[in-house]
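Supplementary Note 3. Input sequence used for the single-chain structure prediction.
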Amino acid sequence: MRHPIENQAGPFCVLTNQFKRKEAVAWRIRVLDSDGNAADDKVLKSVIVELGDGQKLPAHYGPHGKPPTDYFWSLHWEIPADFPTGSLGYKVIATMMDGATQTWEPFKRAPTQLTVIAGEPQMKN
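The predicted structure, written as discrete structure tokens, is reproduced below.
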């Protein structure tokens, strides 16, 4: 999902897997426990997005919307201006309070991978 960055034209909060340098990738993550209930920050010690290049980005649990309409884990990452183009794999790692972990990865098919493409985002006029 594309996250808003000041002075960029958008659109934002739309699902996409292709991002230009200087755009921000947003992750919205819902983790369920073995009973199917949402696992919040009282159940999980952490939720981390690990990028294919090894960067680890911490997610935060909290409300979304004004007034809040949902609660989930989220984070965003702004793609550096000099970041290489191409597919960028990632995985989500949830760590329970006892240290046990569970990992999720998206499909490995190239057209579905998070991809950094050439160019820069359109700016507001």
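The chain has a mean pLDDT of 93. The two ends are 23 Å apart (CA to CA).
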